[in-house]
């Protein structure tokens, strides 16, 4: 397969997560697999479970990360978070980039599932590319409310170029 580039915004987000070699990570909305590629490159005994509602997203992630799948470091499934039964009992980190679920509607059940599965001290990392600056306050307010409502402590980080807002929700 031809070498695929990884967007700087994805590199920044994964770097901010500080993935450790033994971490168990859930990626929500794996899309083209760039995040999975970076996360898996940092894992040794840890594992990444990546999900996407889209069949094409799952296929692209599997193709891009075939070596990680073969090595057992990566599992990819077509499913949405609402119906997910996480195969890993406890997660160190959860990662999502441009997944609107957390700010477009009430997602108490999905966030409760994450709170149940994320280890104390673990975190949910939600990132949004702010292509319209006026949306950022709404995204931060609504996503934060959904996370805080299920017992997470939320902090906000921003990258200026390209404009990305991140919410870090700690258990």
From TrEMBL:
Keywords associated with the record: Methyltransferase, Transferase
The Methyltransferase domain, residue ranges: 25-122
UniProt GO molecular function: methyltransferase activity
InterPro entries, alphabetized: Methyltransf_25, SAM-dependent_MTases_sf
BP GO terms, sorted: methylation
Superkingdom of this protein's organism: Bacteria
Ranges in coiled-coil conformation: none
Protein name per Swiss-Prot or TrEMBL: Class I SAM-dependent methyltransferase
Organism: Nocardioides luti
Lineage: Bacteria, Bacillati, Actinomycetota, Actinomycetes, Propionibacteriales
């Amino acid at each position: 397969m031809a070498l695929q580039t990884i967007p700087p915004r994805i590199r920044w987000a994964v770097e901010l997560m500080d993935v450790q070699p033994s971490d168990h990570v859930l990626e929500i909305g794996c899309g083209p697999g760039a995040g999975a590629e970076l996360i898996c490159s940092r894992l040794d005994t840890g594992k990444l479970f990546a999900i996407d509602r889209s069949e094409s997203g799952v296929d692209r992630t599997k193709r891009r990360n075939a070596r990680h799948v073969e090595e057992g470091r990566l599992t990819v499934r077509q499913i949405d978070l609402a119906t997910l039964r996480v195969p890993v009992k406890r997660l160190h980190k959860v990662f999502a980039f441009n997944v609107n679920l957390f700010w477009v509607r009430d997602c108490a059940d999905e966030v409760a599932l994450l709170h149940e599965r994320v280890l104390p001290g673990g975190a949910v990392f939600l990132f949004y590319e702010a292509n319209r600056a006026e949306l950022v306050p709404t995204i931060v307010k609504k996503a934060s409310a959904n996370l805080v409502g299920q017992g997470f402590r939320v902090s906000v980080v921003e990258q200026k170029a390209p404009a990305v807002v991140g919410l870090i929700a700690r258990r």
